[in-house]
User: Fold these one by one.
Assistant:
Number 1:
Amino acid sequence: MSEDTTEELMGATYRALCKHGYASLRMQDIADESTKSKAALHYHYESKHDLLVAFLEHLYEQFEADIGADCGDDPATQLVTFVEDRLTPRGDGQKEFQTALLEIKAQAPYDEAYRERLTEFDQLIFDRLRSILQRGIDHGVVDDEIEPEDTAAFLVEHINGAQLRNVTVGASLETARHRLRTYLTEQVLVASEMEHSDE
Amino acid sequence: MSEDTTEELMGATYRALCKHGYASLRMQDIADESTKSKAALHYHYESKHDLLVAFLEHLYEQFEADIGADCGDDPATQLVTFVEDRLTPRGDGQKEFQTALLEIKAQAPYDEAYRERLTEFDQLIFDRLRSILQRGIDHGVVDDEIEPEDTAAFLVEHINGAQLRNVTVGASLETARHRLRTYLTEQVLVASEMEHSDE
């Protein structure tokens, strides 16, 4: 399959998930969002499940490219930006997409292929946070009494919970973002770089 | 419907959800877990959806009774116990049940009746935490610089995230509980009651 076709089908899958959710999604709904026929889709992907596994892989690659390398910026800024980005809706249909993604997450316990892909996402976010926190400690901008591993896991849990609560009971993502920023400022980052400039 | 019949059907629904999950659950599966026929179930509940809404209401009442009144115990102990209880598997099939409950949560954005019931749960946990935190401040065992409302919401988010991560990627609930306890001890509770016994 050409790269253009892959891109097109992944875009169509995204739009179809936003429109129909996961549970009632049919291959025809995805075909309707693309220039391809349902038969053409089935030529590339045996089932809706196969296509969605490929879609999760595609999302992962995009996400990995998006977050770029862990270097450059000041680790304090990088930490706040990375965490806030996870709780900031981007583009059209982000709420609908998060909703469909939650349906896929809810299938993960029954579905090894989904679970593996979601575990990769979880691990990538965890690794990135741990690495930023470690650099933050090395640069004296993150409290050196925290354990990067524990705090990274705590943040991953928290991001998951804020997203879940937003989707299921409509809790504000903005307020959640604000609370998490307060946590970072008061509990993770050192009060001010000036105080620790000699570290 | 007699109270005994309600109890029986709610128990049957719990067991059927643990066995089959939510998506593929049929009224027959619930009947199979009870002494009633599928026709008898349909006499009381028009659809699987109606039965599950009643089930969520039943869970809520049970939960409300379980957590009892907010009084008596030392607020510091009460806070830690309440939070840890949310992340402690209880009884058989708890993991399976959490999995089915996540499927229902994932349907909440599409389903007002589910969303209303889940919002009640969320609100109950939030209210209880806020009230414990306020009593903790009044008793000098909770840091009086925290905002009970913000910290309660932060804890609700965190509990949601730890449960979600446990179900979807199999992250350890025990480790999550330990991390959250550390957060409570280091950031929410005052270092020791002795230091603040004059408050």
Number 2:
Amino acid sequence: MKTDARLTPLAASLPASVPFVGPEAQERRRGAPFTARLGANENGFGPSPKAIAAMRKAAGDVWMYGDPENHDLRQALAAHHECQPENILVGEGIDALLGYTARLMVGAGDAVVTSAGAYPTFNYHVTGYGGQIHAVPYTGDYEDPERLNAKAREVGAKLIYISNPDNPMGTWHSGAMMKEMVQNVPDGALLLMDEAYIELAPPGTAPVIAATDPRVLRFRTFSKGYGMAGARIGYAIGAAPVIAAFERVRNHFGVNRIAQAGALAALKDDAWLAHVQAEVGAARTRIAEIGAQNGLTALPSATNFVTLDCGSDGAFAGNLMAALLDAGIFVRKPFAAPQDRCVRIGTGPAADLDAFATALPAALVTAKGRALL
Amino acid sequence: MKTDARLTPLAASLPASVPFVGPEAQERRRGAPFTARLGANENGFGPSPKAIAAMRKAAGDVWMYGDPENHDLRQALAAHHECQPENILVGEGIDALLGYTARLMVGAGDAVVTSAGAYPTFNYHVTGYGGQIHAVPYTGDYEDPERLNAKAREVGAKLIYISNPDNPMGTWHSGAMMKEMVQNVPDGALLLMDEAYIELAPPGTAPVIAATDPRVLRFRTFSKGYGMAGARIGYAIGAAPVIAAFERVRNHFGVNRIAQAGALAALKDDAWLAHVQAEVGAARTRIAEIGAQNGLTALPSATNFVTLDCGSDGAFAGNLMAALLDAGIFVRKPFAAPQDRCVRIGTGPAADLDAFATALPAALVTAKGRALL
């Protein structure tokens, strides 16, 4: 196809890249639904029943736009995090907030540092604004704060991305280590700390940092611990001037009114969050056991998924994933070597994990058979 | 405040501009809720009960991300518009789709043509990507297709924006005239035809154009006729290569799952849409009557609002709007002269229009009193 001359040179240079193919698309291609949906880091234990009730109630009010200031939710989040509403930015999911961040901070050729194999949607946004990704390797199966800061210093990065706990590996650092990372952020850089999974991590994983610290922007979401991925609502915590800059580019009326109501109710339901934490913890143990019974080693996880080391290479893990998909078990795997030797299994209800346990032995046989070809 | 050195030069140059202050923010400032919410071009007759039911059902599934391909809705929309799914782009409201369009097409200094006083959110996106707005005046109270195309030819515009029916005036052109406009789009330009209100316009207002025509991108929404403004879901119809370009920049997982379900149900409920069309038509007549009883002239409207000519200048209309707001009637008004001599009143349930009718005489007295100061 001839390139459309109306596209900007940057837009014309971009690939039509989709960071993730959704499970529905895979189901359409295979011609059958999955038995277990364990690949998208969703929370199969679901949102708080109070959040569902609030969303059902709000459905009747959906003729009204949502409040573009997200006032009530920002007030509640500020109280929750013991900061001011001016330190809270609510948006249509972390993906959108990362996109706005790239738009604000990344121009042509600007350096951005992340880990090789970390969140591809972040890279998609950076590349989409003409930024230059500098990826450092994981150390072991951990993102490496020192390496990230050192690379940022070396290349004069505008942005540094880290997720803690990490996706796709599930590993994590202590709050103390993350605080040290913040303190060592090079001048001129903004640290983006993606804490999407933080509610599922051990106490002490979230660093104690002032919300007013201008060196860091922390990203949170209602998609994971709160079980509302389909609602598209997340937030960032940061210094007021950094938060205020988003007024220049954000889609002010972009947050769904039903999501606003659901998030507010979810945030208040500590008991349900505790229930989810317990269920996720039990499911992590179960996945590790299923792995061990089949010769696969679970990495430690502070998330709602468990990454299983298949003990071979990326091709083997890819074959295993393909065999699981064929068997109706939707899972994904890390993209970059050597982490791509793993498959990533979401925590989910017992029936889903049963289906995974049932499918895994034959899938391993298939993968091993392919490895011998 | 010192400018954050991490911002791009473009971002640093942008004002923190909010195209519209929401009614909730105004309610917080005045310390009381509005009696009638008639200012945001919302549809107070609400969405189809079947759409509400579908959204309530989907609330229980919100732990899953929505399908990033929006497959089912695109299929349904393609059938509805007798085109292919490849001609349909679903996104998180027209606002977001206009933003993506600006991102794809508008670079620093690129010329964009619109009408003075037309949709400010479009201008916000264009300016936000460094584009140069060239605004032509309305002709009478109508956007002027010939003038827009001529200006685009003169300045070598990348984009031309027109809304038909028009917001904020409510006026409209025939489909035949819009088709002629498409045929005269200058080479190198893309015509953005915002048809947000099209379901509320007389038959024949939508031009008969091939969905594959590469000169035009048509924007539709579930916010207006379908009454789902808070759900943030809209779509564009265009040539497949133009639609495909959005894969390079869009937030693939950006559409709310509940909104997807609601939109699909709303699209199928022709009877409810007919009900809304009848209610909106009756409310337009009623607003015109209320205006006439108070010496204000209603402009013809093909939308879910009626623009009332106050017969004076922008200052007078501003005072009238302020007096209505003080009286608890949320309305807005056009920004640019001479259209700013008007106030814009949304169609809504009878009780809301009763409240408007009750408040209007005293508000006019107040506005006339201020005019004498």
